[in-house]
Amino acid sequence: MLGQKPLADIKRIIISRTDELGDVILTLPLSVAIKKALPEVELTFLVRPYISHLVHRIHEVNQAITLPESGKALKIFREYQPDVIIFAKSSFRLASEAVRAKINVRIGSGYRWYSGLFTRWVYDRRSDQGSHEAEFELNMLSPLLPGPFDLEMPELPVMEKAAGEAHAHLQEAGIEGPYLIIHPIGKPSIPPYPIERFAEIGQGILEHRPDLSVVITSGHGEHPVAQGLRKCIGIEKRTTIIDTLSPNGVSELVRGSACFLSSASDGAHLAALVRAPVVALYPGAPPNWPQRRAPIGPYVTTLTPDENESIPPGLQPASDPMNIIARIGPERVVQACLKAIESPSSQPENYQHR
Fold first, then answer.
1. Same domain, yes or no: 198 and 128
2. What is the mean pLDDT of the chain?
3. Which among 119-133, 162-176, 314-328 has the top mean pLDDT?
4. Is the pLDDT of residue 4 over 80?
């Protein structure tokens, strides 16, 4: 019967998550839950090419397959022949190709116009609820496995070669002691935190901690922003920009940091995954607030605008002032970073999702 397959007959599962790094990281608890229930199953993630390096390193994941630039996966589905595909990221094209590939169990949202392409459904309206994104992802297992499911992040093992690469870049930049990472670029969907305020934070931390240096990271096309931040901080001997590492090198650079500071970003989720202390700046209202999108890790601090914090001059008021992360005062961020550095297990102003 369509969509019916005994658990004992399930040998291969694909999780399709073809969007951004942070979204993929928040989907990784599915790998832990699946392997606990079905330890012998072969588990594969279908992801975008620049993310596969990370997923390959997760012990619970047998392999990561990259989605071609064409966005088509019919050949992949036919060659791999999974018993189950879970659409953690909904896609009409991929769902159609899963039908053509005759994948028996296709799990997806029951609220898409193309939900008829699935054979088992999950009825969650994410925009209407306050649950964390990772909980929504875990619930994708409910049509397949008996719950409840523990929300447990897998471990990203150290990669020695990549750690050596990160160490070499630090040495080349003259960074020998502990360092704070500032990643000034956040999600495009969230109003940015001003570079001038990041600079104030960097200056404040360097003043309080003369043993620290600041490493500024940036992605493709973001180097001018990193240069502007370094210039604004103004203490060039104790600040540097590192933005030419391999993706695996980035994970090890982040792992070795005393603290990772950013607004809501994929980098904050990566830092939490490698168990680095994280201070992340978030809107104080849905849909992108910490209750739904906070990084998951043992040393995560999220800050949201306080009702008494004013909107900086020159910024246009938003429909909800709590969504303006630029209101978050630099001194409050400095204190959160210092506390995270000095006592990672304490969680000031923290939303820690467990």
1. no
2. 92
3. 162-176
4. no
Distance CA 309, CA 177 (A): 34
Evaluated on CA atoms 294, 295, 301, 302, the torsion sign reads: negative
**In angstroms, rounded to a whole number, what is the distance separating the alpha carbons of residues 312 and 212?**
28
pLDDT tens-digit readout, 223-251 = 999 999 999 999 989 999 999 999 999 99
Please state, in angstroms and rounded to a whole number, the distance separating the CA atoms of residues 4 and 1.
5
Residue at 67 is within a domain: yes
pLDDT at 293 over 70: yes
Same domain, yes or no, for 178 and 137?
Answer: no
Q: Domain end: 107, 141, 175, which one?
A: 141
Residue type, 63: Q
The domain tally of the chain equals: 2
Report the SS3 class of residue 249: helix
Token output for 169: 């870049």
Cβ contact 12:42 at 8 Å: yes
Position 314 scores a pLDDT of 75
Do 260 and 302 touch, CB atoms closer than 8 A? no
pLDDT score recorded for residue 188: 86
Tens-place pLDDT, residues 161-178: 999 999 999 999 999 999
**pLDDT greater at residue 285 or residue 181:** 181
Query: In this structure, how many other beta carbons lie within 10 angstroms of the beta carbon of residue 87?
Result: 24
Q: Encode burial over 340-352: b for 16+ CB neighbours within 10 A, e otherwise.
A: bbeebeebeebbb
Looking up tokens 């980098």, which residue turns up? Answer: 267
| Dihedral-angle region of residue 3 (phi above 0 means left; psi in -120 to 50 means alpha; beta otherwise) | left
pLDDT for residue 130: 66
Domain boundary among 112, 141, 170: 141
Residues 333 and 84: their CA atoms lie apart, in Å, by 45
Residue 128 is part of which domain span? 7-141
In DSSP terms, which residues pair with 44 in a beta bridge?
14, 63
Tokens 């969504």, located at residue = 323
Task: For residue 200, give Cα distances in angstroms to 102, 196, 224.
Answer: 57, 6, 18
